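Two folds, back to back.
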Amino acid sequence: MDPATDAAGPRVAPHRRVMPIGGAEDKLGATRILRRFVAESGGPEARIVVCPTASALGPEITELYEKLFRRLGAAEVVPVRPRDRREADKEAFAEAVEGATGVFFTGGNQMKLASAIRGTRLGDAVVAAYERGVMVGGTSAGASVVSEHMVGYGSPGSTPKFRMVGQAQGLGLLPGVIVDQHFSQRDRFGRLLNLVASSPDLLGVGLDEDTAILVTDESELEVVGKGSVFLVDMRTALSDAATARGTAPLMISGAVVHFLPNGARFDLTSRMLVSYRDQSAVEPGELPEPTHDLARISRRVAAEGVDDAVVARNARRRRRTKEHKETP
């Protein structure tokens, strides 16, 4: 029998889907992006693995996404948080992914996340799950790590300058693409332009906050959310990125750029707009009112990644304040 068929006839290969989110996605209102992620993961039958390894926050970030995904109808939410590569090689973590219908990476520090899981048993399990059709998504740092080439670190600014950004390896689910997040809110135009000018075969993707792309089979891109997605193509552009020195501004001429709002569809193979249908109106759906704790933790999660030292310092201040109040 042909390996592509079985007794019931030809088998249909599962679609590979990945959903990078620009960070600070709505968690209290319409929850358009997270709602779509749960739906793509199986809806009421979804079993979602949440990996918060990138985060500098404590257990509250895991609790936040567990509450959110359950409110949105997921059947099960399983936390997986290896602290280093030795823990990421544990069989239990890989087994959790093998039984998942969705995998979600939280925000934080993408270098911390990639260095902890890439090439480990857990990282390989995520790649294998993606290949067999399991939905994979991530927000902020979790968005950067899904691409093959990843923004490692960099400085903000609208002007691309030499040495303002560094590149690292991600999980490799999106070849030929490099993703940046919190894009216009944290003024990251310059660093994405720099990276694409240095590697002009890559397509640069900048995601605004509360904005995501759903990419199917590494070819079809759909924009979801209230912000914009910035795409930059420099395959035919001219640049002095190879000869620039110091911190000099780069010369870039002839780049092709796209700003795509919610409802736009883009072909990653031809790098052309396929269609656009304004879908800005959204029904909020019926959800319980968010609790005060959910709103508070959501604000802290949205701020993460600006400076991990600031996050850690604020956490220490909260602990000291709590200890002071509890001291008789």
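---
second:
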Amino acid sequence: MAWPLVSIVIPCYNEQDTIAALLEAISQQTYPLDRLEVIVADGMSTDNTRHNIGKFVAEHPELDVRVVENPDRAIPKALNRAIEQARGEIILRLDAHSQPYADYVERCVAALEAGKGDNVGGMWEIVAGSQTWIARSIAVAASHPLGVGDAHYRVGGRAQCVDTVPFGAYRRSLFERIGKFNEALLTNEDYELNARIRLNGGKIWFDPAIRMKYFARKSLSDLARQYWRYGYWKAKMLRIYPKTLRWRQLLPPLFVFSVLISLILSPLSVVARYGLFSTLGSYLLILAAVGAREALVRREAFLLVGLPLSIATMHFSWGLAFLWSLASANER
């Protein structure tokens, strides 16, 4: 069998805690290492990221690892600079917070070679970023349907065509045909690319057998910042591709909007006050029920509090950012 050359591209900034583990996971792939190259696009890291990459390179001469500079620290620019330096027929994106299973690359290439999709990917096995109770709660929330809706790569499902997969594996010819990542979007650049693939007649293929570990955020403040970015740039992306809107993306801003309107009107209207109390009351009851169920099933009492806090942080950060983005339509 002729193994195509695979270029793994990784955007990176201040990832000293995870970059070495990711590179180690790549070095353990079942795919022939002499048919792999790794290109890390580093946003001028100020911690020990570059030192850790250099140490790994010195200890693993069998794997071709290179670093390109990304002074703008923007993810789509990082990906495009890495793709421009890549030599492979297949481009496979990973993230510094991820650890692919040993057969990850081999399965992605097999799916591409079989014509399953123009972009193929699989499941996130979401792992806590640390062992604190809130970090472990965040990891559960990040794969719970109440937190993320029906996103197959988070909640699972059968192999099928979907609207998006995490990261992705592509043929280089795809970028030559439809262009690289949109550098005007600082987040949601992967979803925008998937929208372009579908609009050009392509397919996004999800296979749950393609798996990686993904490390969730460690704190509620980090989670809030992450979901603020997601919501803000999702609204920007939807102005370009409004037909790509999914119900799971619309619910948080609608919920937050209803709460805000009720708050504004409640001093003037009994109906608004009733609506506010009933909406928030129902929401809190649902969160409490979900937290209680997961705490019982997983036998982890901290989920009684941690899971509702995490899911609420995701909903309100995403929803507020989405609304703010719509209100600031003329901003970048």
